[in-house]
Amino acid sequence: MRAIQIVEPRKIAMLDDAPKPEPAEGEVLVRCNYVGLCGSNISQYMGAGLWGDGEFPSPVGWSGHENVGTIVESRCDQWKEGELVLALPKGPYGFAEYMISRPPGIARLPQKTSDPAALVVAQPLATVLRALKRTGSVINRSCAVIGQGPMGLIFTHVLRLMGARMVIAADPLDWRLAWSKRYGAEHIIDTSKEDPVKAVEELTGGEMVDLAVEAVGYVDSLSAAAHLPKHGGSLLVFGVPHYHVQEFPWYHVFREEIQVHTSVGPECGEFFQTAADMVLDDRARALTEMVTPRMPWAKAPEAFEMYAEHAKGTLKLVLEI
User: Fold this and answer.
1) Which residues contact 105 (CB under 8 A, 6 or more apart)?
2) Neighbour count for residue 308 (Cβ, 10 Å)
3) Per the structure, how many domains does the chain have?
């Protein structure tokens, strides 16, 4: 089968003879039609941060995990061959033509959907739903989101959908902040020009916010996000930490009695069908607009570089297999 392998930092191999996996009992084999790139893939691709000590080459297919495809073999009673699905790969080894998946990380999609590639966005949406379940209700709460890549934009949109009173979006790229406004941010902060902590203080009259979401994982973004909640407020650390050990303003968090929540994506399977349904109906259909650009499988090396360099207009980039 065709597959991608990261052979060294910033270099991938396009394989044509990778071994095709076999499903075990309770699993399905999915022929992937589309796979999205995620920010978590890019640190691995670049050998950056905690991945600087990683071993290369990476396992074949590692670490694609945003897949839409068709079940071609099923050893799971409730799933039939021929069904179009959003599927979380076992492993994850989703940068491949075929992959193994199993419940609950599978969601049914309409067989005749007009734009199946766009439904890839339901996977990251599922991770956001899981994360926000941990923070409790956001109704009538003031919120700030540090980072407006695809994950941050999804948080911005979903927080407004769930009844947040105010959402402040912060990012160093002006073209991404334009998307933030499109997805409901009441205020935007260009962190290439202003300090996000001072900006939030000014926007809230010194009160700060009820909930801050960190969707980047870098040392400076985590530090900034930790200073945004009000006394007794909440901080959701969602961005993958860039290092195994990194500085964090614990004394400030301790003195302000800030409640810290963490959430990581792979355990989001139970939210898959809900996320897919939200994207398919009017609740979160707008998120499909960020599935851009769409690129053929053969251009995967170019796609990874575009994502790594934050090329303008590159949000939820999808490869067609």
Assistant:
1) 87, 88, 268, 269, 272
2) 18
3) 2
